[in-house]
Every structure is written in C-alpha cells, then in structure tokens.
Amino acid sequence: MLTKEDVKLFTRMDVWSVFFVHCEAEFLRAAGRIGFVLPKSAMLPAKQHVRFQRRGFSELHDFSGVTPLFNVRACLALRKGREKTLGIPLTEWRGQLVRKNMGLRDAMHILESKTRSFDLVFASEVVSPYFNRFFQGATLVPRVLCFVKPVAGVPVNRNAPFVRTSDEVLDDAKKPWTMQIEGQIENKYLFGTILAKNLVPFVAREFSLVALPLVVKKSGDVAVIDAA
Predict the structure, then answer these.
(1) pTM for the full model?
(2) I need a surface site. Which of 5, 52, 146, 178 has the fewest CB within 10 A?
C-alpha cells in the first residue's frame, strides 16, 4: 500500500508498468498468456515497481547478456495465470549477434541459454545501511549558486577567473532561484562534475564547472570551509 511519502515516486514510475497492467486487464483472455519486453529493472528491487512485482510472473527471460540488442538491459516478463514471486523459471540468454535486428531463426544459432529458478526480492525488504543517513542522492542545489561558466570577453585571470551562473542551469531554474550571479572566485574552489544527462556507458560527454566552498587536504580528503 502506498503512503503519502511514496507519492514522490509517481514521477519515477515507468510507463511500461502501467501499460502492461492495462493490457493485462483489458485484453488477456482466460487461460491466455501475456508478455512484454521490459527494462531489466522490472525484475530487480525497485520501490516504485513493488506493487507491479508482487503480482508475480509465470516466466522470465533475461537478455542483458545479448549484444547488440537494446540501449538498456532488457528482460521478457510473462504472465499466464500461474504467477509466483518465488521459484520463477528464469532463462538467461547470452550471445554476440552479427548485427542488430537479426531474425530469430538466424539468432538462435548464436544464442546460448541457461534456465534456473529465480526469486523476486522486493525493495521494501532490502534496507541499505545508509538509509537513515541520507534523504537525497548526490546532488547540488540550488544549482544557480554552484554551476558556473567563464565569462567571454573578460581578461583571463588563472588564479581568480571571472565566472557567471551557467545559462543552461539558469534556463532550468525555478523561483526563487531565477537569478544570475557573477564575480571572481579563486581557482582552488572550482571543480569539475558530471551530470547524469552527460553520462553514457563508458563515456562522459561533458564536464560541468562548479564553484564549491571546499578545500582538498594533502591526504586527498575534501572538507567544507567553516564559515566561522
């Protein structure tokens, strides 16, 4: 049962789970079978998927070992009236395809499979040892105070460059943080970071420049400057 605290998960809910349940309710005949190719997160612990997963599956196929296939790890989830959450037949497929979109007849000569029993583990039953220590993931807010870019046309001062709030961050800012700040800042307080949108498998497409009140000690540890 969802609580008020779980409402925030609605924005993280994948459309596939809603579509799967809708099709199951509207179109699945008695004694019929329904299956969808889904992200592999459908069978892994994820709080926003718990209610979908608790209905169980009759069969699962894991395609994360097949390449090239999809841009994300994928699985095939089936329901046919004998769903369970423990002891689900799981077939794991592996193989290096010659090309994308190969026909099944050709691909079957390449693919290898192994079937085993699989138990669903629900996110509500798995508690991280850090659960009570954090309320949010790695993030910097408000971003307009942190994300900066050098100002064009201003003479370069390597020790204390003149920077301004990044236009890209400003475009996404919400009230009351729709402001742009500029000024000089010592280069020791400038760091590089990577936003999730710029991180793809094995590649960082772009680094973002951030201004943070941090000092790097000789040991390599990072500490926040004490305002006092």
Answers:
(1) 0.54
(2) 5
